[in-house]
Amino acid sequence: MSEKTAFEMIYGIVCQIPKGKVASYGQIAALAGNRRWARVVGYALHAIPQGSDIPWHRVVKKSGEVFGGAESDGGRYQTELLLEEGVGFIDGYVDMEHYQWSKIAF
Questions:
Q1: Domain assignment of residue 104, yes or no
Q2: What is the pLDDT of residue 1?
Q3: Is the dihedral of CA 72, 78, 82, 85 positive or negative?
Q4: Domain range holding 52?
Q5: Residue 46 counted as domain residue
Q6: Terminus-to-terminus CA distance in the chain, angstroms?
Q7: Would you say residue 1 lies in a domain?
Q8: Enclosing H/E stretch for 89
Q9: From the CB of residue 70, how many other CB atoms can be counted at a distance below 10 Å?
Q10: Is there a contact between 6 and 32 (Cβ–Cβ < 8 Å)?
Q11: What is the phi/psi pair of residue 4, to 5°?
Q12: DSSP per residue over 71-101, as a string?
């Protein structure tokens, strides 16, 4: 049996985030086994093939900021997708207290 790559582990974790919830890059990194992989999580999400059903939009910064900031094209699109799932925002940031996925690595 072959070992999963870091990206495959990250994708598997991201796919577990329920609709209407978000996780931070650092949270995904910790669940993948290395708390220092937050940037690796970002690289993995950037490398998702177009048309994939991996819910990349459910991963945000620990502050609740969306990809590229709320005013970027990517941020507006991510915000739209999250709003469609019922995720709440406060002043342009995801309300992490209410919408952060509760699964933790420890």
A1: no
A2: 44
A3: positive
A4: 6-99
A5: yes
A6: 27
A7: no
A8: strand 89-90
A9: 15
A10: yes
A11: -70, 145
A12: TSHHHHHHHHHHHHTT--EETTEE-HHHHB-
Cα dihedral 48, 50, 53, 55, rounded to 10, equals 50
- Residue 67 covered by a domain: yes
**pLDDT attached to residue 3:** 65
Work out how many domains the chain is built from and give that number: 1
Contact, 17 vs 58, CB < 8 A?
yes
pLDDT at 16: 96
CATH code for the domain in which residue 33 is found: 1.10.10.10
Q: What is the pLDDT along the chain (106 residues), one digit of tens a residue?
A: 456 799 999 999 999 999 999 999 999 999 999 999 999 999 999 999 989 999 999 999 999 999 887 777 888 999 999 999 999 999 999 999 999 999 765 4
In 3D, which of 46, 37, 27, 45 has the Cα closest to residue 105? Answer: 27
pTM for the whole thing?
A: 0.90
Can you tell me the distance from the alpha carbon of 6 to that of 37, in angstroms, rounded to the nearest whole number?
Answer: 9
User: What would you report as the CA-atom Rg of the chain, rounded to the nearest whole angstrom?
Assistant: 13
